[in-house]
Amino acid sequence: MPFTANRQFKKSPRMFVAAKDMHYTTSDGRQVLDGTAGLWCVNAGHARPKIVEAIGKQAAELDYAPAFQMGHPKAFELANRIVDIAPDGLDHVLFTNSGSESVETALKVALAYHRAKGDGSRFRLIGRERGYHGVNFGGISVGGIVSNRKMFGTLLTGVDHLPHTHNLSKNAFSRGEPANGVELADELERIVTLHDASTIAAVIVEPVAGSTGVLIPPPGYLKRLREITKKHGILLIFDEVITGYGRLGTPFGADYFDVVPDIMVTAKGLTNGVIPMGAVLVSAEIHDAFMTGPEHLIEFFHGYTYSGNPIASAAGLATLETYKEEGLLTRGAELAKVWEDALHSLKGEPHVIDIRNIGLVGAIELEPIAGQPTKRAFSAFLNAFEQGYLIRTTGDIIALSPPLIISESQIGELIDAVRKALRSID
Ligand code: PMP
After folding, report:
1. 314 touches 74 (CB < 8 A)
2. For the chain, which terminus, N or C, has the lower number of CB atoms within 10 Å?
3. Residue nearest to atom 12 of ligand 1 (CA)
4. DSSP assignment, residue 236?
5. How far apart are CA 234 and CA 126, in angstroms?
6. Superfamily (CATH H level) for 6-47+327-424
7. What is the DSSP code (8-state) at residue 42?
8. Ligand 1: residues within 6 Å at CB?
9. How confident is the model at residue 139 (pLDDT cuts 50, 70, 90)?
10. Phi and psi at residue 235, to the nearest 5°
């Protein structure tokens, strides 16, 4: 089982057998409210009819088309619909099958772009401490989660990391963006001075770091990264695998923070989590560098058997239609205040040392037990599951990201379940 306490799971497995709207059904017939949109992906809720129907219809009509040297209309249509909702300036799309693949694709596009422009000395990639960019070698190299890196050898060379912006002593219990830490963006200038800009291809950050515990940047931080990267001819990549498709109450994190990167990495919510698919958006400048660059770039030597798969494309189109019809890409903004107040009502509950929120995402950080990291949060997870609520934990942090269709009363229910779970911890 991936990212699972396997020994514990083997003793008492937890199984879902069905799902509809906000709820899962367990193998023993219990209803469980989905407090995490699956894994931050089922933004429109489960078993949405339009998506279910589109998948069946597409499977009967055109089940598969080769991704190389052949096209099919649905993939192009989906690319256009993604561009319609993306920030101005990001207008070309490459399809992948996951967030991890989207990350690798983005890193390779960045390196190949500089080469196409005759600037092949730009080989360095800059990530961030506590960043999560999936599990493939590029992603764990630019990522900054120690447990995901330490067992896997030397990783990519030529990688450096910015510091993260999480600062408990200064920013605990901030509502929305924390006040302190904007100056940490200037660490990029230090890295540029150390390596020289002419060796740096790209900087990759999550607008809001999700899997590492919902770390929200201070106001102005991403703008500053944008200024510094632009000044030095370095590409800025936003990994929007979590923040994309409405999670922050805007279509993308780039919209929330009003900063447009050169490359945007997406997946998860693109198909409502129903079919594996990712999409990498790039600027016209990057696209044009490949289309008009040296002859050896006549092909972009990268791609997957299932890139732009017809059934995934149909699911993506139906998902984006559902988001549009139901206003889900901005619903997080409508619920943000209720969500924030509900989450912060947990201040003062046992073990809670910080609460963070933005859009329809939240985190509750617990005081770690020395030598037993994750223990308290995992115990809360098990208790919430017993009560009929799915929450997620990462280390000593409880992360919440319900489907964007959640009602205000369900928000109250979910937070009360977390309150009970916190009180149940030994
Ligand atoms: N990037 C980010 C920011 C993510 O949150 C995730 C998944 N949580 C990934 C990449 C990897 O996505 P996947 O699991 O689909 O490979």
Report:
1. yes
2. C
3. 99
4. E
5. 10
6. Aspartate Aminotransferase, domain 1 (3.90.1150.10)
7. -
8. 98-100, 103, 132-134, 206, 210-211, 239, 241-242, 267
9. very high
10. -75, 145
Q: How far is the CA of 41 from the centre of ligand 1 (A)?
A: 10
**Which two three-digit tokens encode residue 302?**
């990268």
Mind giving me the DSSP string for 100-154? HHHHHHHHHHHHHHHHHTT-TT--EEEEETT----SSHHHHHH---HHHHTTSTT
Ligand 1 nearest atom to the CA of residue 131, by list position:
3
Contact yes or no for 35/389 (Cβ under 8 A): yes
**Going by C-beta distance under 8 Å and a sequence separation of 6 or more, which residues neighbour residue 221?**
165, 181, 182, 184, 185
Q: Please answer whether residues 22 and 403 qualify as being in contact, where contact means their C-beta atoms are separated by less than 8 angstroms.
A: yes
Tell me the best of 42, 268, 306 to mutate to test the pocket of ligand 1, counting ligand atoms within 8 Å of each CB and taking the most. 268
CATH assignment of 52-326, given 3.40.640.10, 3.30.930.10, 3.30.450.20, 2.60.40.2310? 3.40.640.10
Q: What is the pLDDT of residues 263-295, one digit of tens each?
A: 999 999 999 999 999 999 999 999 999 998 777
- Report the C-alpha gap between 324 and 342 in whole angstroms: 27
Residue-level length of the chain: 426
